[in-house]
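Re: weekly structure request thread

Next one in the queue (249 aa):
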Amino acid sequence: MQKNKTLQALLAVAAVAAMFSAVGVQAQTAVSQTPSQTGTSSVGKHNTSGKTTREGTIDNSNSTGMENRSSGMAGHNAASPSMGASGAGQSAAGTGAKLNASDEKILKDMAMADMAEVEGGKLAQSKSQNGDVKSFAQQMIDDHTSNLNDVKALAQARGVTLPTEPDAKHKAMAAKLEKMSGDAFDKAYMKQAGVQDHKAVHAKLMAAAKKAKDPELKALVEKTEPVVAQHLKSAEQMPMAKSGTTSGK
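Done, posted below.
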């Protein structure tokens, strides 16, 4: 009986010892796994930063490389607005030397003449019933609009502020023509806007070609002069400019 109790006690002690041994093994296993897991996490972090790990140097196609490229692109983009602003500043301020007073007056006179011819042409298109007069008026609109655009471009490049409307003389002429109609309008338009204005403008251009100092202004004057000469010749050949008749209606 005493032996059986002793045997049972030994078995109980052995069972408890076995339980503690199993718990110790599990604890040791968990501890041994932690560095590995930590190492894995560390490797993952290293991979995302593009640093060297135990597995070797990672290629720069990682997030650090992307950040470097992004920084470069950001620097380029930051420079672009500055360059755009500089270009806009050059456009607004002008890209060439300032014109002297004489050249500036030549450019402004050209703008004034172009505007007057365009406005007169539009008026003739709306009031005249003569096919030849309307055709001449359309040529005035087309040619002088094109020339005015060239004048404006040069004015912007040289920092010149141009007039925005015809002068008092041409406004008075337009008001007078506005009150006319039929043959009277055709005769007055062709004599004043067609012949007289083009004679005056052509004379100014001939003088300007000799006086202009700015090479681009000089080139523009020399380009405009033959166009105005052709307009003058066409106007002088119109019957109503000579006799006041409007044949060809």
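Residues 94 and 159 are 5 Å apart (CA to CA). The first helix runs from residue 2 to 49.
Next request, please.
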